[in-house]
Amino acid sequence: MNSFSFKLKTFFLEIGELSLFAGRFFKELFKRPFEYSEFLRQCYLVGNKSIVLVGLTGFIIGLVLTLQTRPTLAEFGAVSWMPSMVGISIVREIGPMITALVCAGKIGSGIGAELGSMRVTEQIDAMEVSGTNPFKFLVVTRILAVTMMLPILIIFGDAIALYGSYIIENLKGNVSFQLFFNQVFDALEFGDILPATIKSFFFGFAIGLVGCFKGYFCKKGTAGVGKAANSAVVYTSILLFILDFIAVFVADIFYEL
Amino acid sequence: MERSSGHKIRLGIFVILGTIIFVSAIYLIGQRQEMFRKTYLIEAYFQNINGLQKGNNVRYSGIDIGTINDIVMVNDTSIRVIMRIDEKIISHLKTNAIATIGSDGLVGNMILNIVPGKGDARMIQDGDTIETFSKIGADDILSTLGASSENAAILTSDLLKITDAMINGEGTLALFLNDTTMSKDIKKSVNNLKNASYSATRSLNELNNIISNFTTNQNSVLGVLLNDSISGQKLKSVAVNLEKSSTEIDTMLSRINKVVSDIETGEGAINYLVHDTTLVYSLRQTIENVNEGTAKFNENMDALKNNFLLRGYFKKQERQLKKEERKANKDKE
Predict the structure, then answer these.
(1) Is B177 near chain A, with CB under 8 Å?
(2) Is ipTM over 0.90?
(3) What does the DSSP 8-state code read for residue B244?
């Protein structure tokens, strides 16, 4: 019982610290000067370096989803609904979620490990001494970069996943490229794409925030760096699911309207 | 800048609670989906709602205009369906609109269709009731289909019996189908019929010829009859003569009649002869007497022949007769 209350205490402590960290991020975000070059460099690192990974996972997800759904739809004689079904499920849910999880693994752990090692090697302390705001230079740029890049990565991943789905449809059902994408875009509405895109901004923010938080407050020692990277991924993944749940809930209300 | 851990824990609890409250608030909002829109409530009474549920769409001429808000059982035969209609559409609805329950696709959700009524009516307002029309549901169609299929089953079984009987050779139809000799007979009959009709046509042709001969040929009797005007004239005169003769015959017969009746009434000698029976008797008597007399006379004459005085005469007569006979024989030779 004692250990449970202690765990609950540390959990709430963690949440509180994360909330304070997020508040500090918004406070520092609108303070001059803006670190443009560092922001663009982070964008390149976060976005460009992840494109191959996101593309590959998206492609395979599209392939596998179509292959798995096809027999069931064929049973109902509804194979012609395949493009619209796959399109909606990928754009609305599977694309953003899978891409965000993959990015949580790659970007979140990367940021956690990078900032953690900086903390361990006392580079952050050195920055503070030299008069540079380490939070603004390291944390704000990274969180902002991930928040901006993740929606783009998600849209890219969606496109690749749809292409993967098209390949299976073309191989198995002789559906032409034009027909497939016509059907996909017929089925998709603005109400499908907009909530998914708004949601992906929050996903990006969560990945950057948790990664930076874990790295920034890394415990001393080399073990601390590994722990920071690991917990960054775990917490991010949990947070992503919670965010997704809330986002779908909210989007559902507006979608019904 | 550094805050106490107690402060941080309180902040953490606040964030978690805030999230939970936010989510539950969203859930409550989601329950009442049309919260942010102004809507009107309209009622309709149905006998059967065919599985309509709360939240099903309401369509007006095919446009989604709202949802089913509530379904209440009023009594054992009527169900009140309350629908929530969008404010923008309500200005187009009139009180004579008709609500029907349909299905969205073959296996889709049920929907409530509102069809505009005919003619003019007041615009609908909040809380108004509109007319309903119960279409035949899929269940009813299926039940009638069931009855039809039963009938079809009975029919087909009967048909099966008939075909069985045919195959087994029972009845007239089976004979038609199976008996080969019959078909031959029929064929023969048909052939005979054909021949008969052929000869009939021939006969008719001949008859035609004959008739035409009658009319054209003047040598035959009928031809003469038909064509000869002179003979006709003669015939007419003959007929006239015949008529004359017959009138004469008639008068003659009447006279004869008169004579006969005279006879019968007993005037004149003939009547006497006919009717008097005693005369016949006396006549017979007289004839008997005459017979007797002549027989006696014959005796007398024989006696006279043999009398010597007269014998010579008879001998002379015999010789004369023989002479004549000889003379006749000589002439023949």
Answers:
(1) no
(2) no
(3) H
